[in-house]
Amino acid sequence: MLKRRIIPCLDVKAGRVVKGVSFLDHRDAGDPVVLAAFYNDSGADELVFYDITASSDDRNIMVDVVERTAAQVFIPLTVGGGIRTVDDMYRMLRAGADKISINTAAVLNPQLITDGAQRYGSQCMVLSIDARRTSAAGAPPTWEVFTHTGANARSTGLDAVAWAVRGAELGAGELVINSMDADGTYAGYDIELLHAITSRVTIPVIASGGAGILEHLYDGYMDGGADAVLAASIFHFGDFTIAAAKKYLRTRGVPMR
Length: 257
Hints:
Blueprint: E1 5-13, E2 16-21, E3 24-30, H1 32-41, E4 47-51, H2 63-70, E5 77-80, H3 86-95, E6 99-102, H4 104-108, H5 111-120, E7 125-133, E8 143-147, E9 154-159, H6 160-170, E10 174-179, H7 191-198, E11 205-208, H8 214-222, E12 228-231, H9 233-236, H10 242-251
Parallel strand pairs: 1-4, 1-12, 4-5, 5-6, 6-7, 7-10, 10-11, 11-12
Antiparallel strand pairs: 1-2, 2-3, 7-8, 8-9
């Protein structure tokens, strides 16, 4: 059985790691370089670095912060935020990224997924999807894709499940599925959303948004079908350690790296 991964997420704003609820009301979680080194030494399987205001501010990602962060880690590093062209991808790979994550730019120009995959390989291309539930109570669940993370989030009219399927077809090697409703709430991942997507694609899916207790990680794997779980608050603020999370999951029969 494929071994599962735990991936801490560094949401970076103005050079600092922050964490909010549904992308709002951010509180400071520390220096990205220091946290990256900490997670590298703590047994994290991978690390994700998102410059969360690059797209909404219409600017490029902070290359210097990425370079300093990458210098501290010897595990795979995914970088996203404000990446609009294959040349931007190249700059991030040169800065130390192992994978490139795109969200807003992919919605605006889906061909970017294919262009990036053809130039750097699908293993480098991560499609990140910010999804919000749109169905009424009692109706079959549906979710919409949003771009421009944060207070400036924009509706796209895209169905999240259909967009995930298309992203895989276009050449993405991995999907990050982030529930905007659950993000930062500690209430658990949107398992229905995860299952709806993992049942339709064959590429790895990473659960994101809502982890509050270790059981939520287990649910993401076993009920949501995720290949990896992304978490921020529970690790940044000391609720749990990577080691404790892996020990718990192994005792419940989840094969961990």
